[in-house]
Amino acid sequence: MLSTVLTLQYGAAQEKVKTKKAEKMNYKQETVDLLKAIETGAAAPVAIINANSYKQHNLAIADGLAGFGAALQALPAGSAKVQTIRVFQDGNYVFAHTDYNFFGPKIGFDIFRYENGKVVEHWDNLQEKPESTNPSGHTMIDGTTQVTDLDKTASNKVLVRNFVDDILVNGKMDKLTGYFNGDNYIQHNPLIPDQLSGLGKALGEMAKAGITMKYDTIHQVLGEGNFVLVVSEGHLGGKHSSFYDLFRVENGKIAEHWDVIETIEPQAEWKNNNGKFNF
């Protein structure tokens, strides 16, 4: 009798795990489909948005589903192109790394928050897509896409948050090398070459040119396995900016980096009052 009960309990637990995995996969696929609908005009994927409660943090788009629809209608006919390269999930948040043509070629990160199976909130960061590769021959989107080390998600998020806080927010450069495996570091920023030494050299050259980069506040850290996205606010070249940094962690060290930087326009130009961040 006891063995039968235990078997039933185990079976029920396994079904719950399968259900959670299915929901997780659906959220990610639904996000990819929703983004692709910008290109195709398909109506079905848009149904995943909660029409009664959709908060928009792209400051160039009006709030709600109506604002999203108006932005799509403003696109020149047939111009939109969307290719999602990476998609991840952290709880109720799904975040994607996408190659766009959205009012011109861009690379973007999108974050969607799900509630009761519907998308209720959206954040993004968009940057003009460069015409050439960076000094090491990388684009802003190429590189590893495979998610691994799901059991290390929490520790990887702590590692990456500490790196951004120590180095980019507080400038504790004496701690820099501790976050990397020697000089091994793959870089996708369009202006910076590979290797930790390449990062140091590029930052030095920026400083000599009077181009300052300062991170002030970390607003969100999301991760799945070996990938962690950090959303920060700061200034680049004196301009109020939003920084989205995606890191790949390998064996407890930062191994690869992608980013998108967007200037935050003056509030008078915003089309909604939800703010760029406000997670």
TrEMBL record:
Pfam families assigned to the protein according to its UniProt record, in alphabetical order: SnoaL_2 (PF12680)
Domain SnoaL-like stretches: 160-257
Protein name: SnoaL-like domain-containing protein
Natural source organism: Flavobacterium zepuense
SUPFAM superfamilies (alphabetical): NTF2-like
Signal peptide region: none
Domain of life, per lineage: Bacteria
